[in-house]
Amino acid sequence: MTAAGLQPGRSPAPVRLPDPAILFRRRADRLRRLAPGHPLSAWLEFVALLSEAQHALAAAPLSAPATPEAQWRRDLDSLRDRLRGALPTPAAEALDSLPWTDADALDGLAARLTTGTLLPDDLTAAPFVAGALQVAWTRHAGGLKASDIAAPATAVTCPVCGGAPVAGVIHAGSDVSGLRYLHCGLCHTAWHHVRSACVACGEGNRIGLRTVEGMDGPARAETCDACGSHLKLLLAEKAPDLDPIADDLASFALDVLVGDGGYAPIGRNPFLAQAG
Ligand SMILES: [Zn+2]
Ligand SMILES: [Zn+2]
User: 10 falls in which pLDDT band (50, 70, 90)?
Assistant: First the structure.
């Protein structure tokens, strides 16, 4: 059987690795284009500021390379130095409220963030921890060789860091046109996933695509009536400059719509829990 989006005799690259030198700057630009007039504009502007600080760190080589697990807290310190003085008051207070001298508390917060088990008290500090984890893991992923990474075409979690996808992207142009890649919200690796099957259960016959009436842009919600889950789908042909994190945040209304319909999310955006 030929999966939708595949052509006979053609094998898609199973994995696409991120470029840490440009990814965060492009995200900041995309967020600034999406923010004006948006119901979450202040939040989108805040994540844009954070993305700019992330860019400054991720684009510079490390003087002493370390594993992402060891590196992320150093990146958190550097993020604090870059953001101090640049944030509006509530965000500056949130930054100061982090348990800066308690490594166990920071590690606990990072673990809850990556497993989707944040506590209510974590929410104000979580975006900064997410920002530092993204820098460390994206730098790591960007230094790998795609051909060394095995990713089955039905993988639900990231083949590099084990994280959940933010969303699927239907790519346009070049050699990946029409293919779906799932995009990791932590290390920003993308891995190919067949389009014709639900990401959670593999069922192909009970999938629907939903949108919010009157909402334009590249986002759709793929719902599965076999397992009751949903995943954001972003169409690059509608917005060639889309960024999975930014466009997932900006289409929050779609999550509310399908959540009200009883569908459970497969994807996880590290900046969504705090947005509301
Ligand atoms: Zn990942
Ligand atoms: Zn399903």
Answer: low
